[in-house]
Structure formats: C-alpha cells, structure tokens
Amino acid sequence: MASAEFTSSDFERIERETFVERLEWHAELPSTNDRVLEPNWSANADGPVLVLVDRQTAGRGRGANRWWSQTGALTFSLVLNTAERNLPMDRWPQVSLTTGLAICQAVEALLPEADIGLKWPNDVFLQSRKVCGILVEVPPGRAGQLVIGIGLNVNNSFADAPSEMREIATSLRDEAEQSFSLADVLVDVLQRIEREVLSIDSESSSLMQRFQQRCVLTGRTVELTVGEQSTVGVCHGIDADGAIVLWTGEQTERFYGGVVSRYE
Ligand code: BTN
Q1: How high is the pLDDT of residue 205?
Q2: pLDDT tens for residues 36-54?
Q3: Is 96 in the pocket of ligand 1 (CB under 6 A)?
Q4: Ligand 1 close to Cβ of residue 32 (< 6 A)
Q5: Superfamily of domain 8-212
C-alpha cells in the first residue's frame, strides 16, 4: 500500500539526509510507540530507526493522556541505541526537553514571527497552544534503547474542532494559513534532533539558557502534582538538568517529574 502523505523518494531522502538508518512506514497503527515497544519488534535494531505512520488511532501521551492524531499531522517514533550514540543514562532526563528545543527551532524556521516555546516537561507551544507532544520511553529488557515518540500538528487543522479543543491545540497550518511539505518538516526535525539530543551537555550553561529562553511557564503561578502531592509556586524556569524550578514563597524547589495541573 502506498502512503497518502509520503512518496518513495521521500523515504529514500529521509535515509540519505538524516541519521535514520532504517525506516518503517505504516498506513495505520494504533500507536508508533506501542509498535516499537512490542517485545518481538526488531529488538536488535542498531542505528536510529524511524517508525512513521500516516494515521495513528490510539496515540498515547504522558500518564493516562491520549494523543489525537488527525490526517496531515506528523506522527512517528525514533528508536535510538544510546550506547552507539554516546548518550549516557544520566542525560536521558533531558532528552524530552532537548527534543522540544529541536522542534521549537524547526517550527521557528517556518514561522519566524510566531511565539514558540517549551511547556515543561514535554510539550511545544505555538501562539500559547499545544502544537507538539513528545513521549520518551525506555523499552523494557532492551538495554540502552530509548524511544522518542513525537506528534507534531502540521497540516491538520483544529478549525472545525470543538471550542474547548481550539483553545488548547493548534497546528502549523492553522497559524500560517498554508500547508507544508511533511517530508521537508520531518527531515528538518530529524536533523535538529540529531544535533540537539546527541550533544546534550548538562553542565552547559548554554543549555540552561536555551531552556530558560523557551520556557512558557516562567513567571507564571504553576500547580505541579506529583503522585498525591501538589505544590503551587512561581516558575523560575528550567534547570540545565531538566528540572522545573518553583518558588513556593518560602523556598526554591526543583522537580524532575510530575504533571502541571494548572498554570495562570
Ligand atoms: C503528550 O502529549 O503527553 C505526548 C504525546 C506524544 C504523542 C506521540 S505521537 C507518536 C508517538 N506514539 C504515541 O502513541 N505517542 C507518541
């Protein structure tokens, strides 16, 4: 079956112009992350493998969240062999945010005037609405592999979606009022992920600076829920190691996980 979104020369180009060594395309899957987490999926995959889908029917987000992918969105999972790519485990906590930085840059290249930022820990916002979700997972029993699942709203549109949805989600097409080549966007995103994610340096002050510049929660009052416990504080940005920094009025606290349940 042929892809409605990509041509065979797009597939060749992705393998030629990016660090992807193997591409697996599907017309439809429940979830690209679930596909690569299947126990018998190419467990010995060495180089970066890209699992790309035209239509995803049961996409997952963090925790119990679901991810709705419409036709025209870019939906894929990238499987990295971290040992081969010199990405030690102590840098994995920054993978989601550095992937977010790569997406911010790719979106900015297309919409230079737009407001683009990171919503800790795994979302990219465009004009104050979510344009991309990132789900990083570790496949059980496959030492050193890391899965980066990405859903980027490109040519899909929320124009006909219910107003609650339109208030929180957007796409490149909705903001730019034009369509984009999915293959061009994908190649650019993959090249930027290679540059950002494979050169993470948590000691780097420039990484912290770039998180700070992109953090859409800085200066806002945030409620962060970790398990049963909620903390309310003013966000002072994101540390180089990927923690969100909250000033509670009494002290500065850093959190490496949790859900931003509210912000104003
Ligand atoms: C989130 O919003 O919490 C993250 C959403 C991540 C969605 C992507 S789409 C490709 C990959 N496959 C999935 O099932 N989820 C991720």
Answers
A1: 73
A2: 999 888 866 678 999 999 9
A3: no
A4: yes
A5: Bira Bifunctional Protein; Domain 2 (3.30.930.10)
